[in-house]
Design a protein that fits this description.
- Chain A is mostly helical and about 325 residues long.
- Chain A has one domain: Farnesyl Diphosphate Synthase (Orthogonal Bundle), CATH 1.10.600.10.
- Chain A is built from 17 helices and two strands.
- Chain A has a two-stranded antiparallel ribbon with strand order 1-2.
- In chain A, strand 1 and strand 2 form a beta hairpin.
- In chain A, helix 2 packs across helix 5 and helix 4 runs antiparallel to helix 5.
- The two termini of chain A are about 25 Å apart.
- At the A-B interface, helix 5, helix 7 and helix 8 of A face helix 5, helix 7 and helix 8 of B.
């Protein structure tokens, strides 16, 4: 049932395995419960697997609080649905044909359907959150959607620009990725009745994890193997999006900036290969891992005030897993 | 300030005029409060005028309840923002260049921005609703977004099809239009502390008003003058969307169905003109007004259990206004 989850994550999820199965069952139940015209769409989106990291974070965060109730499971479903909805809209505006080796919704059904179905899933996720009855959590959830959309818009307005790159990058990946991680963890802690300092600690943990997670993803985009990843290499760069490895490259070569050369003429594959080569034949990858390591270190520190239990141990193991994703 | 509002609606809105100005002030304040990269977008969308019918309904419905507080004003803002967000996505998927005589967001900024900015506005509207602190109202709001998106998808999947036309039409215009009217009125009543039977009556009133409102719009699409409306005539039909006048036309001519002839070859302007001519030279327009009149009659009946006061009188006047919009 948890088909996107490899052996390592299976172990990390051990304290919440049964609850994650309940989340998965609820998600899979959405298809049959949907109106006829939406059933195939829901089925397609929910069958793509995926590691369910965000719902797992909600459940693990909730595991650190005193109360055991259904609300974190509801929240975990909502968080994953929101994530899936953002992927649909992102793939639509990015003209992406493939995700995890399968056609995107926009590719298979067209952009018209993809926009509207993304809206439907956004709204479905928000309706789920209402079942928790917690206004603070509901508000945080809808603010997250604002942050996600705002982050995507900032990215779009800054494509092919190279100034203030690092500042814009950190801000963008907060909005696009870390924001939802924060919400996943924070709401899990709130819904399990954790005291406020632990709610804040969980939010901070998730901020750092989310930043690290996205930076690893960005590194994989530069390094990865196209067939393994299910998407082309260097995609960010070809779309004019700067990430940590390319930003570090620009800092190393301020005079003959290979990234600016590429942006000036993005149709030349040779220029992309040059950038990828320069990155992979330098210390940049290691430097990226240092930055990622710093964020993971800060995440671990945040957990110091959280009671020691299997969920907390898993959150620490998750840091190792994220750090080592591409090695 | 209330620039989209003509003299007639100005009178109808009399009991809630000050509150509607407060709603407008809050909406106009969104632009300056937005992040830099969004300010121009927000400004564009909020400066288009419009009659603010949905916020007015929220305020008038609230005027029928015993409590006077800020929540209906908050809700009215949210309802209008939601409406504006749906228009942005609709214009994007419909490839519409013009709305109210001005460029659409997708036309001026491109579809990429329009999709993401629509998401941002959807989320902003939902975050507003959280300020009411009322989970029932928040849930109804997010369910409405599901209904809006679902209705648009049903419309898309049924373009250029002619069977079960009337049944699909009623269902579609509930989802696309009446649903938000229901929510506008129902939430206004809830937030002003109205007893449950009156909340339900207000919802039913709004259902009937919403159905009538959309049917008038659909009739104007067939009848209207392109320069007055700010959009081309017969747009629905050219996009394969059946509405009441064209459905009645098909019922009158089952043998040589002029609508099916058009759908078989939509590039022929002659066929569109034929359909428009047949409609305008028949009793169809009057028959549409009878159907619209029935809905308005049912709406008026719903208000019988609502206390008689200026807000209720305005809701009754609104029915007349809607009925007479195109005469």
């Amino acid at each position: 049932m948890l088909k996107g989850i490899d052996e390592r994550t299976y172990l990390i999820y051990a304290p919440i395995r049964e609850k994650l199965v309940l989340v998965e069952e609820r998600l899979q139940g959405l298809g049959p419960a949907s109106p006829d015209h939406l059933r195939a769409l829901v089925g397609h989106v929910l069958s793509s697997g995926g590691k369910r990291v965000r719902p797992a974070i909600t459940l693990l965060a909730a595991g650190c609080g005193p109360n055991d109730n259904e609300n974190p499971i509801i929240m975990a479903c909502a968080v994953e649905l929101l994530h899936l909805a953002t992927l649909i809209h992102d793939d639509t505006v990015d003209n992406s044909d493939v995700r995890r080796g399968r056609p995107t919704v926009s590719n298979q059904w067209g952009k018209h359907v993809a926009v509207l179905f993304g809206d439907y899933l956004f709204a479905t996720s928000a309706t789920y959150v209402c079942d928790t009855g917690n206004v603070r959590v509901i508000r945080r959830f809808s603010e997250t959607i604002m942050e996600l959309a705002s982050g995507e818009l900032v990215e779009y307005f800054n494509t092919f620009k190279t100034d203030r790159a690092l500042e814009l990058y950190r801000d963008r990946i907060y909005h696009k990725t870390a924001s939802l991680f924060c919400t996943a963890g924070e709401t899990g802690a709130i819904l399990s009745g954790a005291p406020e300092p632990q709610v804040q600690a969980m939010r901070e943990y998730c901020y750092n994890v989310g930043m690290a997670f996205q930076m690893v993803d960005d590194l994989l985009d530069i390094q990865g193997d196209a067939s393994e990843m299910g998407k082309p290499v260097g995609k960010d760069l070809m779309q004019g999006v700067l990430t940590l490895p390319t930003i570090l490259l620009m800092e190393k070569y301020p005079e003959e900036n290979p990234v600016q050369a590429l942006f000036a003429d993005p149709s030349h594959d040779g220029k992309l290969d040059r950038v990828l080569e320069m990155i992979n034949n330098s210390t940049i990858v290691e430097e990226c891992y240092e930055v990622i390591g710093d964020y993971c270190g800060k995440a671990a520190e945040c957990l110091e005030i959280v009671p020691d239990n299997p969920s907390r141990s898993s959150l620490l193991s998750l840091l190792e897993y994220i750090r080592e994703r591409s090695r």
